[in-house]
Write a structure and sequence with these properties.
Elements (H helix, E strand, L loop, with lengths): L3 E9 L3 E3 L9 H11 L3 E5 H7 L7 E5 L10 E4 L2 H15 L3 E4 L3 H7 L5 E7 L7 E2 L8 E9 L9 E8 L1
Parallel strand pairs: 1-6, 1-7, 3-4, 3-6, 4-5
Antiparallel strand pairs: 2-8, 7-10, 9-10
């Protein structure tokens, strides 16, 4: 059986997720949630997103999708298509004994996987920054909010935010 596929993202009110290949807000709570969700699981992301992180994340098998046939980084699996990334992720999930695979951006990668995702773990950030990367629209005819939790900004968080879990209708 194929593992559950979960897109995990933080988006602003205007769906912006980044600018110039970088995060544009500071939300320690969201980074902690991302780590807790993805630790011990395969993580699919695009090459630009990987480059913005700069290194493999500990405790996760990273699968990077790139068009560059020569791109390689030690300790990172490389895929050149959605189907190849999904096959690698399923193989890694089985090895790890987990039932979930995460997709962690960027914008092109979210669009590529949205139609095959089982769940969305979205942080809605109460900001409206300019940016060049966006999360695709979440169609309420296809997705419903299964869980939601709101937070007021703290000293470690730049803005108010809300965690939402979406499941397919």
């Amino acid at each position: 059986m194929a593992p559950e596929l979960v897109l995990v993202a933080a988006q602003a009110k205007n769906r912006v997720i980044g600018d110039d290949n970088r995060l544009i807000w500071r939300l320690k709570s969201d980074l902690q949630r991302f780590r807790a969700l993805t630790m011990g699981h395969p993580l699919i992301l695009g090459r630009k997103t990987f480059d913005s992180i700069g290194k493999p994340l500990p405790g996760r098998v990273m699968i990077v999708i790139t068009r560059d046939a020569a791109w390689q980084v030690p300790e990172v699996r490389v895929a050149h298509s959605r189907s190849e990334a999904l096959a690698m992720a399923a193989e890694e999930a089985e090895k790890l004994g987990v039932k979930t695979v995460f997709v962690a951006g960027g914008g092109e990668i979210y669009r590529l996987f949205l139609d095959v995702a089982d769940r969305l773990e979205i942080t809605d950030v109460a900001l409206e920054p300019a940016g060049d990367a966006t999360f695709p629209p979440i169609d309420s005819a296809l997705w419903r909010v299964a869980k939601e939790q709101s937070f007021t900004k703290s000293k470690d968080d730049e803005a108010d935010f809300r965690f939402r879990t979406y499941v397919r209708r």
